[in-house]
């Protein structure tokens, strides 16, 4: 039960009913249960509503005094309402209580338990959007294949040059670590059909600048050509997980949810204790990484998220920034703690819960790393800061300057 006032029932007031719908569960017992007629895989969660539950979940409201200091009255407010409040009241926000209002506020651990067991849920997920895997590796997280570490690389649909460079780097790492079996896949979506580099968010027109936007403009209307390149990569390397979301900067959270569902459904979570997710413009020292993992107690490895943890970051409110967040998307000014997006290590015992929890956690437009922080908060997952993982220019600010590093942006590996 939450430790502040809200007008919804607690999880312990509900009893799980018996059902034998074994195919309607997550993760699937076998991949055949999510395989489609055209040999794709449906990562949308199969959920059924409990017979005596309401089809539409009512809006959750909160006693305003539980969210803001020094307010009068006994008013009950919703997440949607507090996003429209005058900004002055947010100086009196009570953290972390305000984070608990983030949709969808349900007894999430109860719902996860139900879905994992194949039972009906008391509340249907609002964010269980259709996600399909169009292609997956036949050698990584497939059949009885086993690896010491599975690495999921977040790559863009136009990122064939980055993938080429990453493959070459990983081959060198494999040569340096012949006793460590590494499985590497690249996670991508499909080209955007319309709009190029222009996006519309909460009444604002956003222009994605830089190389990512340049490539979107270059290949606008050339989706078939792009997919031919991707298909050639898939045939040649067998290391691409291709999903059906439009692969853009503003859909990175779709990529993150897809990665969680793919790991949950396809990968061996008994043999593997953690899974690494990393951007294609970063690199890792495999030897140092494996030594670090060996130094962490196994139960901690399997139940935690490791990365460079951001604490008390502010929200970008300018529509000119690609990091823009509107007040209606994220009303609070101080972000929930989150693992920065360039790299995370996610424990095997929490992957299924995160994959299911994503269907109950809104991910339209919120940045993927901020989203992971909110999801971890809802699931009470511990975040651990790793000081020798460096994002972009953080590497240049490290101290001492000759200190070792486990993860850093690709350009720094050529100068050390």
TrEMBL record:
One record GO biological process: protein O-linked glycosylation
Origin superkingdom: Eukaryota
One Gene Ontology cellular component annotation held by this UniProt entry: Golgi membrane
EC annotation from Swiss-Prot or TrEMBL: 2.4.1.-
Stated name of the protein: Hexosyltransferase
Pfam families with a match to the protein in the record: Galactosyl_T (PF01762)
An annotated Gene Ontology molecular function: hexosyltransferase activity
Keywords annotated in UniProt: Glycosyltransferase, Golgi apparatus, Membrane, Signal-anchor, Transferase, Transmembrane, Transmembrane helix
Membrane topology summary: Single-pass type II membrane protein
């Amino acid at each position: 039960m939450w430790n502040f006032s809200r007008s919804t029932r607690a999880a312990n007031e509900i009893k799980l009913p018996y059902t034998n719908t074994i195919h309607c569960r997550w993760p699937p017992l076998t991949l055949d249960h999510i395989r489609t007629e055209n040999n794709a895989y449906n990562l949308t969660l199969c959920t059924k509503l409990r017979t005596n539950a309401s089809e539409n979940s009512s809006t959750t409201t909160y006693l305003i005094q539980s969210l803001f200091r020094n307010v009068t009255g006994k008013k009950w407010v919703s997440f949607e309402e507090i996003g429209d409040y005058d900004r002055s009241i947010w100086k009196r926000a009570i953290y972390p209580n305000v984070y608990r209002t983030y949709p969808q506020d349900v007894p999430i651990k109860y719902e996860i338990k139900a879905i994992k067991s194949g039972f009906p849920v008391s509340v249907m997920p609002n964010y269980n959007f259709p996600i399909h895997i169009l292609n997956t590796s036949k050698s990584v997280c497939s059949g009885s294949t086993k690896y010491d570490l599975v690495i999921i690389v977040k790559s863009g649909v136009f990122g064939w040059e980055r993938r080429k460079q990453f493959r070459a780097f990983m081959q060198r790492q494999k040569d340096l670590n012949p006793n460590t079996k590494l499985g590497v896949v690249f996670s991508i979506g499909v080209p955007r059909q319309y709009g190029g580099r222009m996006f519309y968010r909460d009444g604002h027109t956003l222009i994605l600048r830089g190389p990512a936007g340049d490539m979107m403009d270059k290949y606008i209307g050339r989706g078939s050509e792009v997919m031919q390149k991707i298909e050639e990569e898939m045939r040649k390397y067998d290391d691409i997980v291709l999903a059906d979301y439009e692969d853009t900067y503003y859909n990175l959270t779709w990529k993150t949810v897809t990665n969680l569902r793919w790991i949950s459904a396809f990968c061996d979570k008994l043999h593997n204790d953690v899974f690494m997710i990393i951007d294609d413009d970063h690199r890792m020292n495999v030897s140092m990484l494996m030594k670090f993992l060996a130094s962490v107690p196994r139960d901690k490895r399997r139940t935690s998220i490791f990365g460079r943890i951001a604490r008390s970051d502010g929200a970008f409110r300018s529509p000119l920034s690609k990091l823009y967040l509107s007040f209606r998307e994220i009303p609070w000014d101080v972000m929930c703690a989150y693992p920065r997006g360039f790299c995370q290590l996610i424990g095997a015992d929490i992957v299924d819960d995160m994959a299911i929890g994503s269907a109950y956690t809104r991910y339209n437009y919120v940045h993927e790393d901020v989203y992971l922080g909110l999801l971890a908060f809802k699931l009470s997952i511990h975040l651990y800061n790793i000081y020798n993982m460096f994002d972009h220019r953080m590497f240049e600010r490290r101290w001492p300057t000759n200190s070792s590093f486990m993860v850093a942006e690709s350009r720094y590996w050529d100068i050390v």
